Amino acid sequence: MISQNLLDYLNEQLQRGVSESEIRLSLSKNGWLPTDIDAAFNSRFQPQSSTVSQVPSPMSREEAIEAVKKMGKFKASWTLFKQSLHILQQDKEIVFFPILSSVILMVVGILFSVGLFATGVFEAEGENTEITNQTLFYGVLFIYYIISYFILTYFRVGLTAVVYERINGRDINFKEGMNRAKQIAGKIFVWSIITATVGIVLRITSDKSRLLGKITASLLGAAWGIVTVFIAPTLLLDNVSVWQSIKNSGSVFKKTWGETLIMNISFSLVTLIAFFGTIVLFGVLALTSASLGLGAIVLIIIFILLVFALIAISVISTSLSEIFKVALYSYARFGIVAEGFSPELIIGAVKEVKK
């Protein structure tokens, strides 16, 4: 149950510039229940607050849905895309998270691949040797999954911290985002073990099954990805166990599944168009270069620039998708309309808001 002392402490910490996630973590360590912490924050977030854009009271969800209908789904999706892009322009360091995680994951993947080939698991013959090699292969793959999911989630949590502060009117840098992830590294590691276990079970099921089993494993994998799509915000912002974080992620997706899928499709479509347009553009440049006889060096430079352009598109697309997830999660869990987003687009996207 919230008290005036709790509210006074909350206001004092916020005025000192302490972040919401740090306050939540401190209160949780001192025995406060997550429901009481949520209630305290929700009671503090008033419309006149300069740091939080509260849901406008005159607008109900029905009115928001009607406003979105008048706007049209395509225009609404494009508006959300532009608003997510505006957040990215305000905090350009957001792109460092997917860039660094991708580079580290690439290095880890290369090291594990070289290690597997060095052990000779793909060359040895014989029934007993094959069984031993399969056990070794899946064991190494399981470790690779744990490390990969840890790296991926760690950087996503850091990105979530930066975005969450930005959409609530505050600003933290890349280093602080990484520090927030460091504070819950233990939870991220437990999550990595859980999702790696799911991944290796589905991989073994797929490898050992016929077509129907492979399809089933793929569908189960897709379902797991959908349920845990909001795992980074839940791990960072909800002071609960990892299992409860998974449940919370699934709960938020259930509330927002329509808009989440539509926006994911929209982001993917824009990304595909950008990919295709970039490939065509550099293809024209390559053909022009060849027809003019500019030589192999120019073609190599064009190819390198193409690779960097495609990587940049992928990084921006990933960043925008994560920004939108945090905005949806912020409203679905805490009833806070993210600063920089149209209220009707956020309110209309969530079926039920936590009170």
| Distance separating the two termini | 14 Å
Total DSSP helices: 14
Q: Helix and strand string, N-terminal first?
A: HHHEHHHHHHHHHHEH
Share of helical residues: over 70%
* Sheet with the most strands: spatial strand order: 1-2
Oligomer: single chain
**What's the total number of strands?**
2
Beta-strand content: under 5%
Question: What is the averaged pLDDT score?
Answer: 80
From the spread of the alpha carbons, the general shape counts as globular
Radius of gyration: 23 Å
Largest sheet: 2 strands, antiparallel
- The poorly predicted ranges are 44-58
Broad structural category: mainly alpha
Q: Overview of this structure, please?
A:
This protein is an all-alpha fold. The protein has a domain of 44 residues. Helix content is 79%, strand content 1%. It contains 14 helices and two strands. The protein has a two-stranded antiparallel ribbon with strand order 1-2. α11 crosses α12. The longest helix is centred in the C-terminal third of the chain and has 50 residues. It is globular, with a radius of gyration of 23 Å. About 4% of the residues have low confidence.
Brief account:
The protein has helices spanning about 5-15, 20-30, 35-45, 60-70, 75-90, 95-120, 125-165, 175-185, 185-210, 210-225, 230-235, 240-290, 295-335, 345; strands spanning about 55, 335.
